[in-house]
């Protein structure tokens, strides 16, 4: 393989990577906690898009529980987004795990 072919492959890889990153920004997943009482919708770029809290669990005397549920729901959503990213990047890399890609 000559250097020109290698550079061409690198450019193609970069273009595909950019396309996948844009597509990940359009994909959403929803994490939940408290049997769905708190939900967090996250995109494939790990950005929190929406947070929903059922009014019935809002209790001024137990703010800590609500904070814990919000944290759990967001973390669940972020973990799901990470898995979506790994799946999409795996398509590009043929399943080879390249550190730092996702």
Nearest-angstrom radius of gyration?
19 Å
Q: Number of DSSP strands?
A: 3
- The average pLDDT is 89
Helix-and-strand structural type: alpha+beta
Please estimate the helix content. 40-55%
> Regions with pLDDT < 50 over 5+ consecutive residues?
none
> What are the secondary-structure elements, in order, as H or E?
HEEEH
Oligomer: single chain
Number of helices: 2
Shape: rod-shaped
Which structural traits does this protein have?
alpha+beta; 2 helices; 3 strands
Question: How does this structure look, described?
Answer:
By secondary structure, the chain is an alpha+beta fold. It is built from 2 helices and 3 strands; from the N terminus they run αβββα. It has a 3-stranded antiparallel beta sheet with strand order 1-2-3. Strand 2 and strand 3 form a beta hairpin. Helix 1 runs antiparallel to helix 2. The radius of gyration is 19 Å and the shape is rod-shaped. The two termini are 28 Å apart.
Layout of helices and strands, plus pairs?
Blueprint: H1 3-26, E1 28-33, E2 38-43, E3 48-53, H2 63-93
Antiparallel strand pairs: 1-2, 2-3
Short synopsis of the structure:
With 102 residues, the chain is of the alpha+beta class. Helices cover 54% and strands 18% of the residues.
């Amino acid at each position: 393989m000559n250097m020109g072919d290698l550079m061409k492959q690198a450019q193609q890889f970069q273009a595909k990577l950019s396309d996948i990153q844009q597509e990940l920004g359009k994909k959403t997943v929803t994490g939940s906690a408290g049997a769905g009482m708190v939900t967090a919708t996250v995109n494939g770029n790990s950005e929190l898009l929406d947070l929903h809290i059922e009014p019935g669990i809002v209790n001024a005397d137990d703010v800590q529980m609500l904070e814990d549920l919000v944290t759990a729901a967001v973390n669940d959503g972020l973990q799901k987004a990470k898995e979506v990213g790994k799946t999409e990047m795996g398509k590009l890399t043929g399943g080879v795990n390249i550190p730092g890609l996702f």
